[in-house]
Amino acid sequence: GANFETELIMPEFDRVAPAMPIANPAKATIALVTTGGLVPKGNPDRMESTMAKRFGRYVIEGLNGLSPTHYEGNHGGYSTAFVNEDPNRLVPLDVLRDLEREGVIGKIHKLIFTTAGCSTYYEAGTRIGAEIAQELKESDVDAALITAT
Question: Full-prediction pTM beyond 0.70?
Fold first, then answer.
């Protein structure tokens, strides 16, 4: 029943207001972002699978989907077996291309952005998110579909 005080400094988490809905999805540019650690096969950039300090950006222009011969999961917090069988399970480029062809969305941004969210420090995650957001703004992206695990 004794009172105690922690010696740990507890983080204060930001509160972010939700964005307004996209006015006209048929004219919108949509970006794909994931904290699920999708990387090119073999992880040539040596992206971290835990405690990420950076993010990757990969060209998807001209692709109708993500092939397991070219992409794989790199994440220490979940089994990547299903992602390795079909990377579109994590980053649904195949479905978004269908929506793009049907005119439901305007177009898909030419890059995907990826990092591994497992055990990533709050400060690093905040910085990574801000850097990705800045790139998306500079590219006139209207919305991002953010997938996680």
Answer: yes
